[in-house]
Amino acid sequence: LSLLRKLVANALVVAKQPAMSSLQQRPLMLKTRVRFSVTVRFLANLPVFKDLLKVKPVFDKDVQEAKTIKGFRHFEFNREECKVLDVDTPDGGLVAEFGHMFLKEKRGRYKGSSETRLGVTEELHIIKFVAEFKHAGLECNLEASSLPVIVISSTNQVLSAWASVMWYNTLSTSEPRNLSLFADPPPLTWQQLSQVLSWQFLSVGKRGLDEDQLAMLRDKIVGDGPDDLVHWSKFSKNEGAWIWIDGILDLVKKHLVDLWRDGCIMGFVSRKRTLTLLQEKQTGTFLLRFSETNKDGAITFSWVEHTNGETHVHAVQPYTKPELSGMCLPDIINLYSLKAETNVTGNPLRYLYPDIHKDTALGRYYKNSPLSATQKIIDGYVKRTNIPVSTFPTPPPSPPREIPFTDMDMDMDTEISMDLDQLLQELYPDFFGPGTSSQSFADYSS
Amino acid sequence: LSLLRKLVANALVVAKQPAMSSLQQRPLMLKTRVRFSVTVRFLANLPVFKDLLKVKPVFDKDVQEAKTIKGFRHFEFNREECKVLDVDTPDGGLVAEFGHMFLKEKRGRYKGSSETRLGVTEELHIIKFVAEFKHAGLECNLEASSLPVIVISSTNQVLSAWASVMWYNTLSTSEPRNLSLFADPPPLTWQQLSQVLSWQFLSVGKRGLDEDQLAMLRDKIVGDGPDDLVHWSKFSKNEGAWIWIDGILDLVKKHLVDLWRDGCIMGFVSRKRTLTLLQEKQTGTFLLRFSETNKDGAITFSWVEHTNGETHVHAVQPYTKPELSGMCLPDIINLYSLKAETNVTGNPLRYLYPDIHKDTALGRYYKNSPLSATQKIIDGYVKRTNIPVSTFPTPPPSPPREIPFTDMDMDMDTEISMDLDQLLQELYPDFFGPGTSSQSFADYSS
DNA sequence: ACAGTTTCCCGTAAATGC
DNA sequence: TGCATTTACGGGAAACTG
């Protein structure tokens, strides 16, 4: 999520007449000590007022919350500055642009006795633009308000600030501006939240979430509670859904935009459903799904194998962002190999679910193109590629496990995994003996 | 290279008596807008003076160069501040510590008519500490000078600043302090430079450079000129030796400290010498050498192969820092495999030059330990490793080429490589036909 | 002691200046 | 215009602070 650095106040409103402002009701995000610019536009397009209107930005003017919410932070601009509204060249309106502005915190937070206490990314601030208008004995005050602003001091707060943005935006389509929204934040219906989440993927990856993906998310986030409501604290808290989804959004943005846009990634599918879907398909059918445990975004592929009348579904250890920096997912899929002790190697991945040949689905994304593959020597050096290899997993697939957010906890999750490993060891002791996988390639010329 | 952030002025000298200062003659590096601290210590250990000495740091006081060298930058401290010398708790000396200081550039460079023009990392500045001493009618001025200071504004200048530091330090062991050193910088003898370079490796990797390594560097840097002198402009310029060596230092620091410290890396060996050394050894003998073309530090391995009475020496495409972040060099060596069309795979690397088995030399650094390799499934996921693979390079090794810095130029170098490829293609057309290296693994279950 | 919050600063990219 | 130098700021980590 890149920071919004351009704050545009579209309206300068005549005092006491809060007309206009057909603004989208979205809060903005500003980082202290980072430059931004604001443009104020006088919507009444009257060049007559030229040179008569002096505008000045004021932070949190008349904001009640600043004096009632305990610990509410105070900020100020780097400089006190007035600007005269001038004619905008293209369309002739009156504008003033404040450039090179930044925000710094003023010492002395409000230490009221109020019981409400907000996290910094739950504080909603306002930038007001005030202007005096004096002409021919007439005198009146003009005021225009920016959208609500969330002020952060570090990029590590973008995550939770963005959660606030989404929550506020969704609720503000129905309610009027409420800067105390997070003092007692209303829940969202799943219908509302799912739409917002889908938009995030649309915005980052040019494709929203489909019914199946949303259904999986609904199971994880809402569970089978009595109602369809998602509560703010549950959504935004450390182990909540948002941190996980945001990690995936970032993963998509950095490494999977094309694949996601073209619908190659099923992504949000439970293990259980993966099993159900794949076991009916032919050997070599695989699908891509996001890790449900990795908080930083990770993706794995699962594939099905029918041998000797048995059906196995396997899933590879999820790939993380640093790993995908080394090799893109299509190449990984293209090169992935299984290795048995007998040294027979092969790629178990053949058809992207439901039945599209992997080269048809992903061929256009391969970086290791056949062309460059013909060059075995470059600049006198022997070329090389990394081949992702697993040792042949003949044990059956792990039993599916569901991890609803409602009760999710990393420690518990780890324990489940341990039990699972133990179970596997009991069922298939042969596969857990002392192995030699890292040495079992035939030694060269031996 | 991490920035030196602690500037310690050990001496406060009575005016006109530049005694003491058994300081190492090393310039320091300071970055504008980055905090540092200075401690001034009054070496005459007399607590009698307590509360009588007020010290104040002044930047470039009385520095002639600031007024004679064209474009010389001016700086000032973030605040004017005097401090009273106080008793230092442990040893009873008089000290004042200036913390939270930083430097910012003052507008208005000196635009003298002098013909000398220095790069910013060639400017040598001074911080002086001045004190007035008044007692019983007596009055005198005390002054102490810091070591020379190189002021940079970005970490991208550390590279060339460090070159200046080395040059200055080497020359200052014989000459007195000379802030105009780089106006007409004297050359260093190879003897001097080689010692400095060896120190860099000692400092970064706990092991200096041996005779063979220095001989190779001498060939590259001095060539076979009439004398042993290395000139500043040649050393520090963009295509000079330092940028290349610094890239290697950084590579060692980030990914190869252990290997370097234990002497596993021959590193500075020419291609020609690599050929000579390896062709006498048994098949599977390899050595590690740094890339001579990659400016950001890269390492490759060369190995020898005797088959059918022919001897071939091959070198793998060099590994860069980002690649080594994904897998450490010992693991790469341990897992490296050659692949022929017949699907026979194997690791051609067996003995670290001269004849140490690779597991003996590198085994302790393997991250993919046999223990973890026994686990084929983790948390229900199939484990995986990346195996670095090359397609069998049957053509003979590339003809050795020497790249002396004296005439080195990247463009030319690239052309040489192109010619080399063309040559290889003419000699061994079979190996440049349409290949299938990325698909030639047997397809799973086909 | 600790968690939420801010500062610090490297390293890269972009902007600026000459 | 190109190169030298500075600024900008994301991101990770340390420092702060109640």
TrEMBL record, chains A, B:
<keyword id="KW-0804">Transcription</keyword>
<keyword id="KW-0963">Cytoplasm</keyword>
<keyword id="KW-0727">SH2 domain</keyword>
<dbReference type="GO" id="GO:0003677">
    <property type="term" value="F:DNA binding"/>
</dbReference>
<dbReference type="GO" id="GO:0007165">
    <property type="term" value="P:signal transduction"/>
</dbReference>
<dbReference type="GO" id="GO:0005737">
    <property type="term" value="C:cytoplasm"/>
</dbReference>
<keyword id="KW-0010">Activator</keyword>
<keyword id="KW-0597">Phosphoprotein</keyword>
<protein>
    <recommendedName>
        <fullName>Signal transducer and activator of transcription</fullName>
    </recommendedName>
</protein>
<keyword id="KW-0175">Coiled coil</keyword>
<dbReference type="GO" id="GO:0005634">
    <property type="term" value="C:nucleus"/>
</dbReference>
<keyword id="KW-0238">DNA-binding</keyword>
<feature type="domain" description="SH2">
    <location>
        <begin position="260"/>
        <end position="396"/>
    </location>
</feature>
<keyword id="KW-0539">Nucleus</keyword>
<dbReference type="GO" id="GO:0003700">
    <property type="term" value="F:DNA-binding transcription factor activity"/>
</dbReference>
<keyword id="KW-0805">Transcription regulation</keyword>
<comment type="similarity">
    <text>Belongs to the transcription factor STAT family.</text>
</comment>
